[in-house]
Amino acid sequence: MFSEKIMIGDIPVKIFTEGDYSRTLLVLHGFGGNKESPTISGLAERLCPRGFRVAAPDLPCHGERSEPESCLTPERCISEMMTLEKELSTEYAFGTSFGGALILRRTELYGNPFCRIALKVPAINMADSMIRCMRLFQPDYTLEQAKKNGFRVKMSKEFNMPYSFYESLSGIGEVRHCDVWDSPDILTVYSGKDELVARADTEEFLRLNPRIQRLCIEESGHRYLNPGHLRAALDRAAEHFLADLG
């Protein structure tokens, strides 16, 4: 398998291929992640030998990007996503956590251009997930303090997110029905012991959109630190994308 970094405008994108390819998967990492995620390389290992190209960008403020945190907004992420779709002619999409929430929002607003979508622990109530994430690192911090000082979150890098980011997330909760989402062409893999996305929210989202395929990894947390849990999630996602190939 071959990988290279390209730039599409100001967006760094890691591309995985194995010789010829006939279809392209766009992969969006989660909040605090980047294009070097083992989830992304694991998907590529499974899909590139079957004729896929896998393309993974760094979202604004993530990875090797250095914009101020104020540049990280759902609207900007979705705009960049749609630019990449056009430039790379993507037919499939995969998103982890915040990346999964962005894919859902994009399809709701602008229609679904993808043959198949897979979501891993999608942050369907991202505002709540932001508070949960904050409390991992600032257990006694309050929303009143965040209004004045923002959120400090230390993931693969440290973020000092303005309160306006939380406000932007509050308006796009996805624990509801949407005709565009309610499809067997969408797969959701979620975690039984997720500390950042409430299991009850995910299961209510799936109840309201019953045609979505689903798999719960019962013993996993949000970050899939157990290699066996990650392997099970990626095997199921790859199976979903390869279903049309027979």
Overview of the molecule:
This protein is α/β, with parallel strands linked by helices and 246 residues long. Helix content is 37%, strand content 22%. It contains eight helices and ten strands. The protein has helices spanning 38-47, 74-88, 98-110, 126-137, 143-149, 163-170, 199-208, 227-242, and strands at residues 2-8, 11-17, 23-28, 52-57, 92-96, 116-120, 151-154, 158-161, 186-191, 213-217. It has an eight-stranded mixed beta sheet, with helices on both faces. Strands 7-8 form a two-stranded antiparallel sheet. Strand 1 (2-8) and strand 2 form a beta hairpin. Helix 2 crosses helix 3 (98-110). The longest helix is centred in the last third of the chain and has 16 residues, at 227-242. The model has no long low-confidence stretch (mean pLDDT 94).
